């Protein structure tokens, strides 16, 4: 009699040893979970590195405007009045606007002397002031490099006559300043130079009505 063929049922890839199969399964699950955790942590680490790099780039381009007065001519050591704007930051400052106010009213180079020191001017008003050693420099709409400065106002005695200089010295107490400037990364700040830190703004808005220096 021919022998009957025997069918073989398929079986899994287990070892046939139950406790060993359980250990292998647990190990596979553990390695999968561990790989997932490592991937997530790696992603977080990379995100932190990108954020830190961005902060480093911002920090390396950060401008910081500072205004101050000079009372002596650096060459002759004689009295004068100098309004100096400096960039003490590490990146260039794109100055959209710089404003000088006297007693709360914005002034231009054409009006500041008559506003603050009219009694010290001659009969010709502003013209006498300009001939008495008054000079100025515009800054709005320009770029001030890092660690650089610019003289915005210079008043020197006119011969032996220092009335205008003395009057301007006294008027400084009623002067205030405002500026809005940006970095090369288009991050912008406003400052009145009395705050500890400039205040960040989305953008510097300047209109044709503003009396910028």
Domain tally: 2
Query: Regions with pLDDT < 50 over 5+ consecutive residues?
Result: 125-130
Number of strands: 10
Q: What is the distance, rounded to the nearest whole angstrom, between the alpha carbons of the first and last residues?
A: 117 Å
SSE ordering: HEEEEHHEEEHEEE
Estimated helix fraction: 25-40%
What characteristics describe this protein?
single chain; 213 residues; alpha+beta; 6-stranded antiparallel sheet; 4-stranded antiparallel sheet; 10 strands; 30% helix; rod-shaped
How does this structure look, described?
The strands form two sheets. Strands 3, 4, 6, 8, 9 and 10 form a six-stranded antiparallel beta sheet that branches. The protein is an alpha+beta fold and 213 residues long. The chain folds into two domains: 44 residues; 137 residues, no CATH class.
List the helices and strands and how they pair.
Layout: H1 18-60, E1 65-72, E2 79-87, E3 93-102, E4 105-107, H2 112-116, H3 126-131, E5 134-136, E6 142-144, E7 149-155, H4 163-171, E8 175-182, E9 188-191, E10 199-201
Antiparallel strand pairs: 1-2, 2-7, 3-4, 3-6, 3-8, 5-7, 8-9, 9-10
């Amino acid at each position: 009699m021919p022998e009957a063929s025997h069918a073989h049922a398929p079986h899994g890839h287990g070892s046939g040893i139950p406790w060993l199969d359980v250990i292998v399964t647990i190990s596979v699950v553990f390695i999968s979970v561990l790989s997932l955790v490592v991937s997530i942590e790696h992603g977080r680490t990379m995100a932190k590195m990108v954020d830190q790099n961005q902060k480093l780039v911002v920090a390396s381009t950060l401008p910081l405007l500072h205004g101050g007065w000079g009372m002596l001519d650096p060459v002759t050591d004689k009295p004068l009045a100098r309004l100096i704007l400096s960039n003490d930051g590490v990146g260039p400052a794109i100055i959209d606007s710089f404003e000088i106010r006297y007693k709360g009213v914005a002034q231009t180079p054409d009006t500041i002397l008559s506003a603050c020191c009219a009694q010290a001017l001659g009969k010709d008003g502003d013209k006498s002031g300009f001939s008495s050693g008054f000079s100025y420099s515009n800054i709005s709409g320009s770029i001030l490099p890092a660690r650089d400065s610019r003289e915005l106002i210079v008043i020197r005695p006119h011969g032996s006559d220092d009335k205008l200089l003395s009057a301007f010295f006294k008027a400084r107490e009623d002067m205030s300043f405002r500026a809005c400037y940006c970095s090369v990364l288009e991050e912008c700040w406003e400052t009145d130079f009395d705050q500890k830190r400039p205040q960040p703004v989305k953008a510097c808005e300047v209109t044709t009505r503003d009396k910028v220096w």
